[in-house]
Design goal:
Strand content: 15-25%
Number of domains: 2
Number of strands: 15
CATH architecture of the largest domain: 3-Layer(aba) Sandwich
Protein name: Glucitol operon repressor
Largest sheet: 7 strands, parallel
Keywords: DNA-binding, Transcription, Transcription regulation
InterPro entries: Carb_Metab_HTH_regulators, DeoR-like_C, DeoR_HTH, NagB/RpiA_transferase-like, Tscrpt_reg_HTH_DeoR_CS, WH-like_DNA-bd_sf, WH_DNA-bd_sf
Domain HTH deoR-type: 5-60
Structural class: alpha/beta
Helix content: 25-40%
Shape: globular
Order of helices and strands: HEHHEEHHEHEHEEEHEEEHEEEHE
Distance between the termini: 24 Å
């Protein structure tokens, strides 16, 4: 099977997020290319800031101060995020009041909302608000959109801080959709930015139903700050099946895992 460079890079990144590291020789054998080709791919990905080269392969980039910038994350796991977004949009019903927090998966959800009537949507994400504005103008759905004010986090294109939380405190919603940095049994639902975490936590507490969106790179990851314990989520939507050793705990707490197709 002959793969384009971009396809190889995507497969390399998927292996990297799944395993935490990749090795040149096994990856070359898996993809059916030379070790020199894999080394060039790794060098290119390092130049893009997506991994760190080490002897014999590569490891994840360190993001001590948070996750990669929003624009960089739009290039990762695109197909998985699109499937998750579409599946999540199927849970939205006419007349719903919903909250959409920040993240690239949430942008896919916003783009997938179609044919719904009389929605009320709250968000603190500028890209999500832009998608929703376009959808309203194109009459892909009807309703109202509230963009929460606050301090602009330009790199992540979000609005957070005390003003945002104060405004959010005036609302209750049927469903809160959370796009997260990590999801684990011990750490629960987590993210990297304290201010974004605070808003997402308030979304969750204001909602009757909490729906977590997490692609394969987030499963088993414990990010810096907890949003909510895993048992406080109602639904998890992912591009992969529920880990076998999680199933009993999730069933015990009534958390439904949906694998997007």
């Amino acid at each position: 099977m002959s793969l384009l460079a971009q396809e190889r890079k995507e497969l390399i990144l998927q292996a990297l997020f799944r395993d935490g590291k990749v090795k040149v020789i096994p990856m070359a054998e898996q993809l059916g290319v030379s070790t020199e080709t894999i080394r060039r791919d790794l060098d290119a990905l390092e130049a893009e800031g997506k991994l760190q080269r080490v002897y014999g392969g590569a490891v994840r980039s360190g993001h001590e101060h948070g996750e990669p910038p929003f624009q960089q994350r739009t290039q990762l796991f695109v197909d998985a995020k699109r499937k998750i977004g579409r599946r999540a949009a199927e849970l939205i019903e006419d007349g719903d009041t919903i909250a959409l927090d920040v993240g690239t998966t949430m942008m896919e959800l916003a783009a997938s909302i179609q044919g719904k009537r009389n929605l009320t949507i709250l968000t603190n994400s500028l890209p999500v608000a832009s998608h929703l504005s376009e959808a309203l103008n194109s009459q892909r759905f009807t309703g109202k959109v509230f963009v929460l004010g606050g301090q602009l986090h330009a790199e992540q294109q979000s609005l957070t801080g005390p003003l945002c939380e104060q405004m959010l405190g005036q609302f209750f919603v049927n469903k809160a959709f959370l796009s997260v940095g990590g999801l684990s049994l011990t750490g629960g639902v987590t993210d990297y930015d304290l201010n974004e975490t605070a808003v997402s936590r308030q979304f969750a507490h204001a909602a009757r139903e909490v729906i977590v969106l997490a692609d394969q790179s987030k499963i088993g990851v414990q990010a810096f700050a907890r949003i909510i314990p895993l048992e406080e989520a109602d639904i998890v939507i992912s591009d992969q099946a529920c880990p076998k050793d999680w199933a009993g705990t999730l069933e015990q707490h009534g958390v439904l895992w949906i694998a997007s197709q």
